[in-house]
Amino acid sequence: MEATTNVEKLYECLDRGTECLQRYLQTPYLDALVAMGENVFHHDVMQQLDKETTDEIREALNELPDESLRSEEVRKAIQLATLKGMRASTQPHHAMTPDAVSLFIGYLVEKMVINKRADNNDEPLFIYDPAVGSANLLTAVLNTISKPAKGKGIDPDETLIQLAYANANLQNHDVNLFHQDSIVTKMDELDDVVICDLPIGYYPNEEVAKNYSLNPGGNEKPYVHHLLIERAIEQTKPGGYGIFLIPNGLFQSDQADQLHEWIKKETMIYGLLQLPQSMFKNQQYAKSIFIVRKRDEYLRDPDQALLAELPSFTNKAAMADMIKQIEDWIDGQIEKDV
């Protein structure tokens, strides 16, 4: 079937060129996709290849849409290619936040943060993802919000951070990316919003974990998702937001009491929105969106947190009703900056 939309055309170009590079370089699909992203950015073949491979990649590049691509079109095409590569990968941590969830988090940033900024505040919003992966979640949020923003992301996976570079460059986003471990690396600048689809499991470097309040100590191993929450809030400005994708059982784990006490001390809990059960084949992996705000002396705790089970994102009537409930809560509980 011939590609008709810009997303399809860009995806076919990326996929065709990536498969050529994969064959020639004998490298995994995701690594070849990084190189093909560079070729698309420069609209030329940037690698030293044989003539046949170079000609085939140039032929793919010539099939790119003539008109300028919107950032969201680029993101979706790269997402499709990345998902193809992840299906072939044996790395269990290679996963991607569902599109509907990424865009919904962007909606929350718009309504809770941007719409509540002072009218004369023209400063860009600073958004940080401490487990940025391929930057799909980060760039989805940047594409959704209505005001200028600067992004920042860290990931220990070299292939994913290279994909993130290609992704952000092709979308023309102002994003700083670092190939590091965000639990080890403390950034100098504080951010307005931290977003993160938290990786789940134990953190292997117990020496580093000793510096964290959420290190359980003794013979217990620290959870990476607990340490990431602590680091994220530490990197947030007073009054800034943390929006996390968490496992539904986060507050039922063996270290839940320690986590809950720390969160109540350092933040105000704004909301817990359970994602639709239909999104998860195995309910063991079901997730929720957890929203907190870093404490500041001028802020008061909400009268009550926003607690809800989200309907299916495809159920337009139910989602419209849920959106009204969320926006009524925001209007009643979050004061506009002056």
TrEMBL record:
Superkingdom classification of source: Bacteria
The DNA methylase adenine-specific domain, residue ranges: 97-298
Domain YtxK-like N-terminal helical span(s) in chain numbering: 8-86
EC number: 2.1.1.72
Keyword Transport: no
CDD domains reported for this sequence: AdoMet_MTases (cd02440)
GO BP term (any one): methylation
Class of enzymatic activity (EC top level): transferase
Gene Ontology molecular functions: DNA binding; N-methyltransferase activity; site-specific DNA-methyltransferase (adenine-specific) activity
Family annotation (PANTHER family): ADENINE-SPECIFIC METHYLTRANSFERASE, DNA METHYLASE ADENINE-SPECIFIC DOMAIN-CONTAINING PROTEIN
The name this protein goes by in its record: Site-specific DNA-methyltransferase (Adenine-specific)
Native source organism of the sequence: Texcoconibacillus texcoconensis
